[in-house]
């Protein structure tokens, strides 16, 4: 059973309301920030998953209407809306996966780090509630700057005594989705065949697509590698500029986040073949958090795909070394934020 967990079987999207196809809907998912630009289309996409029995939509405002609207779709998930801090705990009770896109998006001229001052506190309070109400859940952090908000979430969970590094994920799926799209376009490949791992982090040069690991195996000229890498790294900014003050990527992000939710649910359901890139606590490099491909299972991360980092091209090796200082600084900024609040 899959919705759009990978580019392998997207036709399931159309099958979710087909009565001949009824996998057991048994998982509960909460979206924190569900009335926002990402939250609404994300809620729509995951409402179509045949694996979900309950979909809890939380926001500080405007969420009841979204929930009422979505609840009329005839797919299995029961939709409930929760508004404001007094309803946050209930939105999280017994939840298997929590997705957090709460927070402000960029405007032209801003970096993701410029969002830190507002979003750090939003992620901290959201994750505190997760720790108190569903500490066993998979936690998907979308709010930027992801390079710092994931370390913030880890520290919050540690302070609450419930940190499980195997279940805390920074959502970098959009980088993979973009890499797949741009590589397929450039090389005239069928989209369904293309898979490009993206490692590092989720901002500027910390986003490192491993074109040498692209599937199917394709030859790129040095010029193509440079162009594609920069396009993937700047794709978020491309959208921010095109929206001209109206926010950042929401639709492609919702698609990517729905894929990551679906992968998590398949893993929780016992599928033994689920791999995704994600920004997680890691020992693959000297950095404490790092995005790479991981194997997902019932208990979260089951394994790291170490081989992706072996035999990198010279271009990738250099780019990997170049991203480390920036990524380290973002991690330290996140850790210091929680430390200071103590
Ligand atoms: P948005 O402003 O449209 O929506 C954010 C929502 O969060 C709003 O509905 C708002 O009411 C809600 N919110 C604010 N404070 C909250 C709180 N304390 N608790 C619960 N909800 C709260 O923004 P958006 O376009 O949906 O983007 C959300 C975040 O996702 C931004 O930080 C953006 O940078 C980030 N983002 C990340 C990726 C990624 O690849 N990881 C991609 C796109 C956007
Ligand atoms: C993205 O990559 O689209 C997001 O991180 C949003 C942004 O600010 O670029």
Automatic annotation (TrEMBL):
Family, as annotated: Belongs to the LDH/MDH superfamily. MDH type 1 family.
Catalytic activity: (S)-malate + NAD(+) = oxaloacetate + NADH + H(+)
Species annotation: Amborella trichopoda
Domain Lactate/malate dehydrogenase N-terminal: 28-170
GO BP annotations, alphabetical order: malate metabolic process; tricarboxylic acid cycle
Position of the signal peptide: none
Enzyme Commission code(s) on record: 1.1.1.37
Any one annotated GO CC term: cytoplasm
UniProt entry tagged with the keyword Oxidoreductase: yes
A molecular-function term among this protein's GO annotations: L-malate dehydrogenase (NAD+) activity
Keyword NAD annotated: yes
Subunit structure: Homodimer.
Entry keywords, A to Z: NAD, Oxidoreductase, Tricarboxylic acid cycle
Highest taxon of the lineage: Eukaryota
Name the record gives this protein: malate dehydrogenase
Enzyme class per UniProt: oxidoreductase
Annotated Lactate/malate dehydrogenase C-terminal domain residues: 172-338
């Amino acid at each position: 059973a899959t919705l759009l967990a990978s580019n392998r079987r997207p036709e399931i999207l159309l099958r979710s309301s087909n009565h001949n196809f009824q996998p057991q809907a048994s998982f509960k998912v909460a979206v924190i920030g569900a009335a926002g630009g990402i939250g609404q289309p994300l809620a729509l996409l995951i409402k179509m998953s045949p694996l979900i029995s309950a979909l809890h939509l939380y926001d500080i405002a405007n969420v009841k209407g979204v929930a009422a609207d979505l609840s009329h779709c005839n797919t299995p998930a029961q939709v409930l809306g929760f508004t404001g801090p007094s309803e946050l705990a209930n939105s999280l009770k017994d939840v298997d996966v929590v997705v957090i896109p709460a927070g402000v998006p960029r405007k032209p001229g801003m970096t993701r780090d410029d969002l830190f001052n507002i979003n750090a506190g939003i992620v901290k309070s959201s994750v505190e509630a997760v720790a108190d109400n569903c500490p066993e859940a998979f936690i998907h952090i979308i709010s930027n700057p992801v390079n710092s908000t994931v370390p913030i979430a880890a520290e919050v969970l540690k302070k609450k005594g419930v940190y499980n590094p195997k279940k805390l994920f920074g959502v970098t799926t959009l980088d993979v989705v973009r890499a797949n799209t741009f590589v397929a376009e450039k090389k005239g490949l069928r989209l369904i065949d293309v898979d490009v791992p993206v490692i590092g982090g989720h901002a500027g040069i910390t986003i490192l697509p491993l074109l040498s690991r692209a599937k199917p195996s394709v030859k790129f000229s040095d010029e193509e590698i440079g162009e594609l890498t920069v396009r993937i790294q700047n794709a978020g900014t491309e959208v921010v500029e095109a929206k001209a003050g109206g926010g950042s990527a929401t639709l492609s992000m919702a698609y990517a986040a729905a894929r990551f939710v679906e992968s998590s649910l398949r893993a929780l359901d016992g599928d033994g073949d689920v791999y995704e890139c994600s920004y997680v606590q890691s020992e693959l490099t000297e950095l404490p958090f790092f995005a790479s491909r991981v194997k997902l299972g019932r208990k979260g991360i089951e394994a790291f795909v170490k081989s992706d980092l072996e035999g990198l091209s010279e271009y990738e090796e250099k780019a990997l070394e170049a991203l480390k200082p920036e990524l380290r600084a973002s991690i330290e900024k996140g850790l210091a934020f929680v430390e200071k609040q103590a």
